[in-house]
């Protein structure tokens, strides 16, 4: 099974998940056999700057993706993936390795309400663009912090289980 994760960085399993599949800068492709990771590859999103509806699902189908895991994705995009036989999983956050483990151990529940709506409004005014960029950077930093905390919590839970 090939699982694709949206990512803010090209660090493989150590990457922080991105909250939007279409405009994320990277994808982490993980080949899994049973519950064992066979291959991990970080690739740039060729459609990060601009894409038409259906471009990314077509691209993922060509890459042999079976599941795409992301923070958020609109209902139209989800339907495109379903039409291609690719299972969309939304509402994920943290580091790819932690989300992968949750997915493989069936700890991620997939519900329609897990989809995080993403506003995609583009304004031409410089001030608003600067503010958007500032918020994006803060958001990315917060995602890294959450991912670190989630990893720490996992390690503490493992110790408690021993």
Pick out its properties.
five-stranded mixed β-sheet, Nucleotidyltransferase, domain 5, alpha/beta, 162 residues
How is this structure best described in words?
With 162 residues, the chain is α/β, with parallel strands linked by helices. 38% of the residues lie in helices and 18% in strands. It contains four helices and five strands; from the N terminus they run E-E-E-H-E-H-E-H-H. Strands 3-2-1-4-5 form a five-stranded mixed β-sheet. The protein is globular, with a radius of gyration of 16 Å. Residues 111-124 have low confidence and may be disordered.
Helical content stands at 25-40%
Structural class: alpha/beta
Count of structural domains: 1
Radius of gyration: 16 Å
Shape-level CATH architecture: 2-Layer Sandwich
The CATH homologous superfamily = Dinitrogenase iron-molybdenum cofactor biosynthesis domain
Ranges where pLDDT stays below 50 over 5 or more residues in a row are 111-124
- Shape field: globular
Report the major sheet. 5 strands, mixed
User: How far from one another are the termini?
Assistant: 31 Å
CATH class: Alpha Beta
Number of helices: 4
Whole-number average pLDDT? 82
What strand line-up does the widest sheet have?
A: 3-2-1-4-5
Give the CATH topology: Nucleotidyltransferase, domain 5
Give the strand tally.
5
- Portion in strands: 15-25%
- H-E string: EEEHEHEHH
């Amino acid at each position: 099974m090939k699982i694709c994760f949206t990512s803010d960085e090209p660090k493989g399993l150590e990457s922080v998940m991105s909250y939007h599949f279409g405009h994320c800068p990277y994808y982490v492709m993980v080949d899994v056999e049973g519950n064992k990771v066979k291959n991990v590859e970080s690739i740039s999103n060729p459609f990060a700057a601009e894409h038409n509806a259906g471009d990314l699902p077509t691209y993922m189908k060509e890459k042999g993706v079976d599941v795409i895991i992301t923070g958020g994705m609109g209902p139209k995009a989800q339907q495109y993936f379903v039409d291609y036989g690719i299972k969309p999983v939304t509402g994920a956050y943290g580091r790819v390795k932690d989300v992968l483990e949750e997915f493989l151990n069936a700890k991620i529940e997939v519900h329609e309400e897990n989809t995080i709506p993403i506003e995609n409004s583009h304004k031409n005014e410089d001030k608003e663009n600067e503010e958007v960029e500032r918020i994006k950077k803060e958001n990315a930093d917060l995602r890294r912090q959450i991912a670190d905390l989630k990893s720490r919590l996992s390690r503490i839970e493992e110790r408690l289980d021993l």
